[in-house]
Amino acid sequence: MKLYCIADIHGRLDLLKKLWDDLITNHKLDLSTDKVIFTGDYVDRGPDSYGVICFLKNLQETYPNNVICLAGNHEWINIMYYARKSQDDIWMHDNNGGQATLLSYQLAGFHSMTHDHLQWLSHLPFKHEEPGFFFSHAPVPRENRRNTLNQGLPITDDEYCWGIWDGVGDEFGMARDHGNGVIGVCGHIHAIRKGQLHPRFYDHYIYADAGAGCSPKAPLCAIEVRTREVIYAWP
Fold first, then answer.
1. Which of 15, 109, 172, 202 is 20 to 30 Å apart from 134, CA to CA?
2. pLDDT tens-place string over residues 80-113
3. Across the beta sheet with 205-207, what order do the strands follow?
4. Domain containing 210 — which CATH number?
């Protein structure tokens, strides 16, 4: 069984389709046996969040056991925007890309995000485990890097979704060692500011976000987590 991770898509349906065709055609992806874990942030910034959700929702409904979609922080920004019904909201800040998502629905003929899509997003899990691997959207922080109010308590949904980031880019030191040889796999954090358009690999963690939707030059990639082979879809 091949085990792939695909991180932050951010509305880049074009890259998702290109990557998926490559996986099917050239890497013989077979969802009757192989698994694909999507680690969240399907929406915002890119031009077709509506199309991305349609694609993933249909894929998961067709292969419910072998296509796993996790929640990212951008999914919850969307959900909370509609729950609050506030126009002065974090989702609409320029750097978060909510306007692009809303426009993609309007171009598809809808006034706003559809109820079935919001329902699907709101039921996505925050974590997933496979033998030897732990998947979440954000890197699970080491205990000494957590908010002091959370230390010693179970990891919260916010931590799975947002993580705790110290601003200095200490990817190795931030992500916890899950123990027993289990490797963490996350998205959420790209390295565009360092001039890197690639995932990053550590002994205990895989940072799978290559920056799709956050730079016109950034690719979307799939990682076979056991072999650490990377398959790219470049703009």
1. 15
2. 888 876 555 777 777 789 999 999 999 999 999 9
3. 127-130, 133-136, 183-186, 205-207, 200-201
4. 3.60.21.10
pLDDT value, residue 85? 64
Whether this model's pTM surpasses 0.90 = yes
**Residue 184 to residue 205: CA distance in whole angstroms:** 5
What is the count of structural domains for the chain?
A: 1
Range of the domain at 215: 3-233
Q: How does pLDDT run across 148-194, given as a tens digit for each residue?
A: 999 999 999 999 999 876 555 789 999 999 999 999 999 999 999 99
The answer to whether the beta carbons of residues 213 and 226 sit under 8 Å apart is no
